[in-house]
Amino acid sequence: MESTWERIDENKVKLTIEVDEDRVEDSLDKAYKKVVKKVELPGFRKGKVPRKILENRFGPEVLYEDALEILVPEAYQEAIEENEIEPVAQPEIDVEQMEKGEVLKFTATVDVKPEPKLGEYKGLEVEKEKIEISEQQVEDELKRLQEQHAEYEQIEDGEAENGDRLVIDFKGYVDGEPLEGGEAENHNIEIGSDQFIPGFEEQLIGTKPGEEKEVNVTFPEEYPQEQISGKDAVFNVKVKEIKKKNLLSIDDELAKDVSDFESLDELKQDISNRLEQEAKEKGEQQVEEQVVSKAVENAEVNIPEPMIDQELDTMLKEFEQNLSYQGLDLNTYYKMANTDEDSLKEQFKDSAKNRVKRNLVLEAIRDEEGITASEEEVEEEIKKIAESANQDPEQIKEFLELQGKVSQVEDQIATKKAVDLLIDNAVVTEVEKQDTEENEAE
C-alpha cells in the first residue's frame, strides 16, 4: 500500500491512498463469501453459487460495495498511522478507482488536530490572596457548628418565629387553577432559610399550631417554569407543627459535643488550622487557574468545528449525569426550563471552545518541554485509583489495559506536570484579601 498527504486547509488534510491488487482481490473474495449467502440461482442451493457464475450473472460490481466496506477502513487506518495524522472527525472518502485486477485508489479528506502557536507561558505574573485567618472567621465557623447541632423542640402553644421549623400542608393556585406540583402534605420548612418561593416563609411568622393561613406570593420572573414565572399565586397553608430552635452555648461543652476536643480553645485552634489549610489550597487553586488561563489566552489556535461538537457532546453527558443526581433527566429539564438540546448546546458553546483550547495548549506545552509520564508515575497513579476504588492495583491496571485507557492516565499525569511547570515559573504576588461585601459590590 502507498499513501501520501497534502494540507488543503489549516486543519484539514487530504490523503491519497493506493492498495495493491492482491489486497483488492482478497477483499473481493471476503465480499463474495458474504454476498453469496443471500443469492439464489436455478440449479444451485442458496449460498452455493460459485463466484465466477455470480460475477458473470450480476457483474463483478456486485461485490465492490462490500469489498470497499472491508478494505477502505483498514487502508485508511494504516495511512493515518503511517503519516502520523491525528484526525478529529470521520473522513470524507472518495473512491477514484475500484476494479477487479486493478489497484484500489481513493482519497480521504479529514479534519486534523490543530497545532497551537504558543505565546508566553513562563514568567507569567499572577496574584494570590494572603493567608490571614481572623477571629471573626473562627467565630462564624463556631456559629455554623452551633446551628448545625441545634436541637428542635415541638411546642403546643405559641407563635412561629424566624428560625423555627414548621410541618405544613399546602396547596397552590395560579389564576384560580390548581398549580401542578404545588401541593404537599407534612412538608418541612424552616422560616428564614429562603428555600421556598420569595415571601412565602415570612408570611408564616406569627402562625400557631393548627392554624390555616392564605399565603400570597409572586413567582420570580426568572423562575424555571416559564408558564408561571412572574405570576401571582395563592397557597392555602395549614400549620401542623411548630418546632423551636434551641442553640447550644458556645463553650467547652459545645466543643465536647461537636468534636473530639475537651475545650473551646482547642476547638478554636483546630478551626483556625483548618481554615488556614483551606485558604492555602484556595490560593494554590487561584494561581493554577490564572497561569493556565494566561497561557491559553497568549496562545493562538484555530479549532475545527468537529472538536467543538465532540466537546459539546461530552458536556451534555456531564450535565445529564448531574441532573440524574437530582432525580431528573434531560427531557424533564427541557420542559422545566422551556428549552431544548440545541439551545442548551448553544449555551455551552463558549465553555466548550475554552475547554478544547485549554487541552490543546497544555498538550502543546508538554510537547515543547518534552514532558511525559514515566512508568513509575503511571504505576503510582494506578495505585491511587485502586485505593480510592478499594480495588487491587493489578486488577485496575489490567482493566485499563483492556479498555485501552492507560494512555489517558499518562495524559493526565503529563498535563499535571505541564501545569506544575507553569506554576513553578510564575511570578506570584500576594495581595490583601478582599472582604466578601467588597467583592459583591464589584
From TrEMBL:
<feature type="domain" description="PPIase FKBP-type">
    <location>
        <begin position="163"/>
        <end position="245"/>
    </location>
</feature>
<comment type="function">
    <text>Involved in protein export. Acts as a chaperone by maintaining the newly synthesized protein in an open conformation. Functions as a peptidyl-prolyl cis-trans isomerase.</text>
</comment>
<keyword id="KW-0413">Isomerase</keyword>
<keyword id="KW-0132">Cell division</keyword>
<feature type="coiled-coil region">
    <location>
        <begin position="121"/>
        <end position="162"/>
    </location>
</feature>
<dbReference type="InterPro" id="IPR037041">
    <property type="entry name" value="Trigger_fac_C_sf"/>
</dbReference>
<keyword id="KW-0143">Chaperone</keyword>
<dbReference type="InterPro" id="IPR008881">
    <property type="entry name" value="Trigger_fac_ribosome-bd_bac"/>
</dbReference>
<dbReference type="GO" id="GO:0044183">
    <property type="term" value="F:protein folding chaperone"/>
</dbReference>
<keyword id="KW-0175">Coiled coil</keyword>
<dbReference type="InterPro" id="IPR005215">
    <property type="entry name" value="Trig_fac"/>
</dbReference>
<dbReference type="InterPro" id="IPR046357">
    <property type="entry name" value="PPIase_dom_sf"/>
</dbReference>
<dbReference type="GO" id="GO:0043335">
    <property type="term" value="P:protein unfolding"/>
</dbReference>
<keyword id="KW-0131">Cell cycle</keyword>
<protein>
    <recommendedName>
        <fullName>Trigger factor</fullName>
        <ecNumber>5.2.1.8</ecNumber>
    </recommendedName>
</protein>
<keyword id="KW-0697">Rotamase</keyword>
<dbReference type="InterPro" id="IPR008880">
    <property type="entry name" value="Trigger_fac_C"/>
</dbReference>
<dbReference type="GO" id="GO:0015031">
    <property type="term" value="P:protein transport"/>
</dbReference>
<dbReference type="Pfam" id="PF05698">
    <property type="entry name" value="Trigger_C"/>
</dbReference>
<dbReference type="InterPro" id="IPR001179">
    <property type="entry name" value="PPIase_FKBP_dom"/>
</dbReference>
<dbReference type="Pfam" id="PF00254">
    <property type="entry name" value="FKBP_C"/>
</dbReference>
<keyword id="KW-0963">Cytoplasm</keyword>
<dbReference type="GO" id="GO:0043022">
    <property type="term" value="F:ribosome binding"/>
</dbReference>
<dbReference type="GO" id="GO:0051301">
    <property type="term" value="P:cell division"/>
</dbReference>
<dbReference type="InterPro" id="IPR027304">
    <property type="entry name" value="Trigger_fact/SurA_dom_sf"/>
</dbReference>
<dbReference type="GO" id="GO:0005737">
    <property type="term" value="C:cytoplasm"/>
</dbReference>
<dbReference type="GO" id="GO:0051083">
    <property type="term" value="P:'de novo' cotranslational protein folding"/>
</dbReference>
<comment type="similarity">
    <text>Belongs to the FKBP-type PPIase family. Tig subfamily.</text>
</comment>
<dbReference type="Pfam" id="PF05697">
    <property type="entry name" value="Trigger_N"/>
</dbReference>
<dbReference type="GO" id="GO:0003755">
    <property type="term" value="F:peptidyl-prolyl cis-trans isomerase activity"/>
</dbReference>
<dbReference type="InterPro" id="IPR036611">
    <property type="entry name" value="Trigger_fac_ribosome-bd_sf"/>
</dbReference>
